[in-house]
Amino acid sequence: MPSPLSRLLKPLFLSTVISISTFFSAAYSQTKDDGNLQYIDPHIGNVGALLEPTRPTTHLPNQMIRMVPVRNDYIDDQISSFPLNVVSHRLGEVFSVKPDNQALTPASWDERMAYDHDLEVSRPWYYSTYLIDKDITVEFAPGKKAGDYKFSFPAKSASKSILFGLYNDGVANLTFTGNNELTGFETYNDDIRVYVYGRFNAKGIAGVVKDNALIKQNAADGKGLKSYITFTADAPDVIEFKYAISYVSPQQAKQNFNNEFADAGFEILKQNAKAIWAKVVGQIETEGGTEAQRRSFYTALYRCNERMVDINEDGHYYSGYDKKIHDSNRPFYVDDWVWDTYLALHPLRTILNPQLESDMLNSYVNQYEQSGWMPTFPVLFGDNPCMNGFHSTIMFLDDYRKGIRGFDINKAYEGVLKNAREATMLPWKNGPKCELDDFYYEKGYFPALKKGEKETVSLVDGFEKRQAVAVTLGGSYDDWAVGQLAGELNKTKDEQLFAKRALNYKNLWNNDKQMFIPKDKDGNWIDIDPKFDGGLGGREFYDENNGWTYLWQVQHDIPGLANLMGGQDKFQNRLDQLFRESLDRSKYQFWAKFPDATGLVGQFSMGNEPSFHIPYLYNFAGAPWKTQKRVRFLLDVWYKDNIFGIPGDEDGGGMSAFVVFSSMGFYPVTPGKPVYTIGSPVFSKVTINLQNGKQFKLVANKCSVINKYIQSAKFNGQILNKPLFTHKQLMAGGTLELEMGPKPNKSWGI
Fold first, then answer.
1. Backbone angles phi, psi at 437, to 5 degrees
2. Using CB atoms within 10 A as the burial measure, which of 259, 428, 633, 646 is most buried?
């Protein structure tokens, strides 16, 4: 069959076709010499099940500069623009750029550019696409605080222009000096100036759009700026734009530029980025498994390194927590959504990069000192009020118990204690407590409104509602973590107080319905259908999910939850029912109310973070073989190596960390307890090269798609009859050896 290019272009341009095809083939090709890099495909999950898709982001691990073309999703065959930086995961970009070889008009900035999916090269260290209508190739390579774009125009193109615009509505400035330098700033989130310094490899003529006309001038101030630089016909066919970004100052932007481009061009930047990624994904070596499983695994590992991001610039950083510039030689990390990442991403980092995790915790402590509150969703502009719970408390406990230091634990405890005593628990709200929080402290549950009762507390978000059951359950886990951390620090009084508050989840247990059901302020049960009541996302009572998902939100006291259900056998039966329970309505009706609850298996929702630990609960219910069955099934069904390969909102590493852990064969069910429970590895051998110089190995003999059940196990040569091992054993360089078979051994691990 003819190639896609030969169908697109006329035979007259066959030589051009061959040249472009050769270029993309060389850029895209992956070989065994690339090691684990060959399995990374950033396009996996680029079409969301219902809500947000993944994005094929090009960046260095945990670094500030991130680039992804602005378009709707992978299905969209037009690109609106290319950003100089994605400031925050799902929270915006700065400085749009796009090439053009047509006569410019004010409408050129709004024009969308068609591209060919098959000619798009997306790698963590390199991006390229071919703009079909314009016959222009766009390439990008990332640095830490800098980036490099190359725009390849048609040979002897009569017009070569680069258009600059803004993504934010605030005041901005763009200035061209010397006909090849760009300086300026864009205002992000109303009050943060993001500075840019860049250079072109050729000189051009600059201009702006003003009063709906193109005017030649070198500088512009105001809102909604549209600037351009046009190069003459004798300029190089490849226009290169090197630039750096700063949140500190225009001088720092230029210093960042000099730091990264002193001896580097495009290829050096690209190869350095590739080498860095090779080291990161090479930390976990795998044998066996299918190529599809390796693609899903290593792509997930790549996504686990998108954030948090270090915004320290050459010993200085801007903090959105006190709106000041700080001097520090230590990294300062932002962009973390803890409701998603405390479950698996932070625990994964405690294994792979404890120093990085330590620096992140130190950043949290700094943010507390600067703002007065321990953040929950720290981003560039401060703590983003999002979701519910103070799960950074759990993160601190988990890391401390795993031996991670390098931050002020007493100051950290001060911060989490203040949150637990003085901050509002209301969803999507930051700041001091209100009357509902005082009610929780006194009565031990968050009160819900009766059906038809109007809200009287002004602080409650009109869309997010009270989420009374979800807040109570999440608060119980957070309070448990405060008490446990108090115990680690010998604060006995606090330990006892919060040990009681950790049991608050029991106050909403309805024994008749065998569910967590809301109560009103008078202590009366509210009669609801836990499958479907509570408005959009169930937010009046739950959050993004229904009562079946929140039935299991007691990770900190699994035996206590089992006792509420009547013992281990009934606990196991209830788990079975979860995966088999009908929606009692069409998927159309269900998803119209619960769009976040995707990846359904019965009432189990693989597509939302609160479900991650649930399939592993069989290990605590006397049936580890069912965990092995469920986990393998979920990985196979919902995490395919294609554009639909993420069943819900990935949230910058939350869902990917589940894939990494589960594919390796173990999972941290209860962050805060330095213990892992065993699932069913998809690989016959996993080797984690630990930063302490040791190796943790998991060997699964005879492992295959069919041989997914554990027949027997040994840890360091000693018989292991329980599906658990400790973080200490892992970090000491232990070896877990599993014998796998096609049928379950129902007696192992009980």
1. -70, -40
2. 646
